[in-house]
Amino acid sequence: MGGPKNIKKVWHCATRLRFNVNNPDKVQQKKIEALDGVIQVVYSREQFQIVIGTQVADLYNEFIKLDGVHADASSSTETSEDEPKKKGILGLLNRFISFISSLFMPFLDAICGAGVLKGALALFSTVGWLSAKSGTYIILNAASDSLFYFLPIFIAFTAAKQLHVDRFVSVAIAGALVYPDIVALATNDTTLHFLGIPVIPMSYTSSVIPIMLSIWILSYLEPLLNKVIPNSLKYVFVALLELVIMVPLTLMVVGPIGSTISNALAGSIMGIYNHAAILAGIIIGGLWQVIVMFGFHWMILPLIMSNISNQGVDPIFPIACAAVFSQAGAALGVFLKTKNKKMKQVSGSAFIAAIFGITEPTLYGVTLKYKKPFYIAIASSAVGGIIIGLAGTQAHAFAFPSLLSIPTYLGHGFVGEMIGLAVSFIGAAVLTYLFGLKGVEDEQSNLDSDTDTIQTSDHDELIMPVSGTKTSLSNVNDEVFSSEKMGKGIAIIPTSNKVVAPVSGKITATFPTNHAIGITDSFGTQVLIHLRIDTVNLKGKYFNSLVKDGDTVIQGQELIDFDYEKIAEAGFDNTVMMIVLNSKDYNVEPQLDTNSDLAINLTLN
């Protein structure tokens, strides 16, 4: 990432490690993409996003322990205050999306868990496993419903954090909206008067837009109060005036306006859904993953919550679920079809993640890489979305689309939902298997058709990197190599000054001292050639590299010139080691016979 001084902020979401940096040109994107476990690197909205998958939190926890990464340069879920801001409509849209996402991201896992629990309770109640009057149901329902009931409080806290106003005053304002006496007024349709001004009875439980608007207004009021109130009085009077002004203002003006906006948006969505179900199915089903890719889904989440809060149901998520299942199906199709070992691992894990609603590994690691599976998934989900739209399926609780969210769709249109999901999943899997890899991958294809990696048919045979006498790695006078802790391989006592590529591939590691070099072939085999023992102390003397990082080489191509005789005269061991760093993936067979240039035979475990 250009070193710790280049990192302004690092945090993570569900699948991505996100960086804001001082100088993007210092970021070695290709090297990051070549790292094992990295699915994709995306540069979006002035931010580097490294797609990892569901292990991203573990990676983040290790990353912030590194020397030079300071606590003030990291935050688990926040956006960077110093993030460069684009001007114009696009910049405004980007900032708005970032703001909306920052409201939900800190408690996104809690939303997911509560939504799934709510759906499970609906399922258990429907099949008769739990009575809605039982103590178990009541307690678990409280656990699942509390977050959504008190959603304005959660939104107030995160909005205050982003808008830099008093978080606890913000929470107090939100608490007033869901205060039992205020809720009772809305339930009984009772109108109050504040200083003679009527307060329209409205329910703000589970609402989003009213409290967002309220905290936005507070972000202008608080600096004004801090400016006009003397320092000696700020401790009491700033918070006092904020509460006295904002709570009545929110209940009388901001809340009703926000609720009107919510009702209008929810009504519009339901109207479109009711009168153009096929169009809704095509747009939402076919384009949902595209919407997610560009981050626009954060703009839709408040609308979905408003639908459930105001209408009691939402039609968007049931259709969007078809898009999730189609991506999972496409990943499964690639997994069953591909002969590339690394892609089989990536697509297999991506399939499992996608089924449970996390589609980024599938998008960036599988379908977008091959392109055809992505188009197939879009087409399949559009068909599935049409079926679900015509069935009139609706979600009765907020739960991100996944296998676990299906119980929230119980009720009218549920059979259509299951048919639509089956069409999306099976259609994408079968079509991807039959046509998705045609023309883009065969037995010897590279992992990514957009990279420069070399296709080779002799990946299982590594030739000698230097002429000389072969010997077992166990005979090397260095415990790190002889113990095979770095990997299995072979040692050679050289009789030549030329180091050549033992396999075709890409140069993925070089060193300033030129005493070692790493190559990765198109199948992911990672080979390290180390010239002599402790020659790093020569600081590059007697070594001359002929290639650089990122170069593509073919088997037998010269990589390094080195004077093995002068190095030996300088008192250094003259053994050359060739190590297969990812030996655990292979059966590594050193070839010690003296009549062959073959050094190592590799076969997949």
Automatic annotation (TrEMBL):
Protein name: PTS family porter
Residues annotated as catalytic: C13 (phosphocysteine intermediate)
Pfam families named in the record: PTS_EIIA_1, PTS_EIIB, PTS_EIIC
InterPro entries linked to this entry: Dup_hybrid_motif, Glu_permease_IIB, PTrfase_EIIB_Cys, PTS_EIIA_1_perm, PTS_EIIC, PTS_EIIC_1, PTS_IIABC_b_glu, PTS_IIB_1
Source organism phylogeny: Bacteria, Bacillati, Bacillota, Bacilli, Lactobacillales
Listed SUPFAM superfamilies: Duplicated hybrid motif, Glucose permease domain IIB
Entry-linked PANTHER family: PHOSPHOTRANSFERASE SYSTEM TRANSPORT PROTEIN, PTS SYSTEM ARBUTIN-, CELLOBIOSE-, AND SALICIN-SPECIFIC EIIBC COMPONENT-RELATED
Subcellular location: Cell membrane
Occurrences of domain PTS EIIC type-1 (ranges): 98-451
Annotated keywords: Cell membrane, Kinase, Membrane, Phosphotransferase system, Sugar transport, Transferase, Transmembrane, Transmembrane helix, Transport
Main localization category: membrane
